[in-house]
Design brief:
about 350 residues; TIM Barrel; disordered C terminus; binds iron/sulfur cluster; binds zinc ion
């Protein structure tokens, strides 16, 4: 069975089981310290209840690790309603000097079928009036990145940085196609990045690549190598920042199904540390490691003694862009065993093939 057919079935089942929620119940916001292009600052995160990612709603069923569709109302939300929700969420936060505003639509901010132009314009105009906001960060699949839409956004933001983040996940087209079901290839990503780059002389526009750590059907060792290779590739392609997302198990995904059957587990935090060390030595642009879900049952793990300590070290290293100071923990032996064992099973599998 093709991965697309499998994903399509899994998605249909998950959607049938979903409890219907009102758009306002699906919105959320929070703030935290963050690294801006100008140095340490503050970020406000806003989740808007748009109708859901077109890729996840298509026959392809979407990406194998993503359940953002479960955070979508699956029906049209009017522009006025979206703008009201946005303004209401904004009003809950003090906008301190040096703030980045990050908008998540569980899909593509630049796709007008997900976020109508009227709402997009109104949101950007509102942000343009906020003096303390330095950066506006949005997400999009590459097919919605066009010169025209980027110019429309930048013209509304004047002197603020407008950053488009693209979920490249891996620089390997094979992994994107057969392990993530991403629905686009490196050439699509490069086209989008080149479009962004071509506007840099006229606007304060930047790009970011999201890279996924440890897709399904990937060994611990392969996950490390793929993450490092993908960071190298993204820098070469011309992105301005990289954000790694280590796997956590989302509900209603193929990843969850394999995890329940014992055929998948999220990466070790030791692997994450290894990736940070290697990438910080090789890549010169800012690199952030997301730590959501660290130490939980469904997220990256080490052992109870060191999960939290390493999580905090990684958060600090995101702000300082330095390599976290490593301390000893006996669980490292098990990680080394896993990395080596995954290689033995891989070469044995290759021999059998
Ligand atoms: S990861 Fe992004 S592109 Fe893939 S299904 Fe989720 S929202 Fe859509
Ligand atoms: Zn430990």
């Amino acid at each position: 069975m093709e991965i697309q057919d499998l994903m399509s079935d899994i998605r249909k089942n998950a959607l049938q089981r979903m409890d219907k929620k009102l758009p306002v119940e699906l919105s959320a916001s929070w703030s935290s310290e963050d690294l801006l292009y100008s140095g340490k600052g503050n970020a406000i995160f806003i989740i808007l209840p748009t109708p859901g990612c077109v890729h996840a709603l298509s026959e392809s069923g979407g990406c194998t690790m993503c359940s953002y569709i479960a955070d979508s109302p699956l029906e049209t939300v009017t522009s006025d309603e979206l703008v009201d929700i946005f303004k209401n969420l904004m009003s809950r936060h003090e906008i301190k000097p040096k703030t980045a505003l990050k908008i998540f639509v569980s899909g593509s901010f630049l796709n007008e079928d997900e976020l109508p132009k009227k709402a997009r314009d109104e949101i950007l105009k509102t942000l343009n009036n906020e003096e303390n906001i330095e950066e506006v960060v949005v997400e999009s699949r590459p097919e919605f990145v066009s010169e025209e839409v980027l110019q429309e956004c930048c013209n509304l933001l004047h002197d603020k940085i407008f950053e488009v983040s693209i979920g490249l996940e891996s620089s390997s087209d094979y992994i994107k196609k057969y392990k993530i079901n991403k629905g686009f290839l490196n050439e699509d990503f490069e086209r989008a990045i080149n479009t962004i780059k071509s506007l840099k002389s006229d606007y304060k526009i930047t790009s970011k690549a999201y890279l996924f750590v440890k897709p399904i059907l990937t060994s611990e060792k392969e996950a490390i190598e793929d993450a490092v290779a993908s960071a190298r590739y993204a820098e070469k392609a011309g992105v301005d920042r990289i954000s790694f997302c280590p796997a956590t198990i989302h509900k209603g995904t193929l990843m969850e199904l394999l995890w329940r059957r014992g055929s998948y587990k999220p990466p070790w935090i030791w692997s994450i540390l290894e990736i940070i060390k290697r990438v910080r030595n090789e890549v010169k642009i800012p690199v952030i490691m997301d730590t959501s879900g660290f130490g939980t049952r469904r997220g990256p793990f080490n052992c109870k003694k060191c999960n939290k300590k390493f999580k905090n070290l990684i958060i600090d290293s995101n702000l300082s862009q330095t390599i976290p100071e490593e301390f000893k923990c006996e669980c490292k032996r098990n990680w080394i065993g896993d990395v080596e064992f995954s290689e033995i099973t891989r070469s044995t599998t290759n021999l059998i093939r």
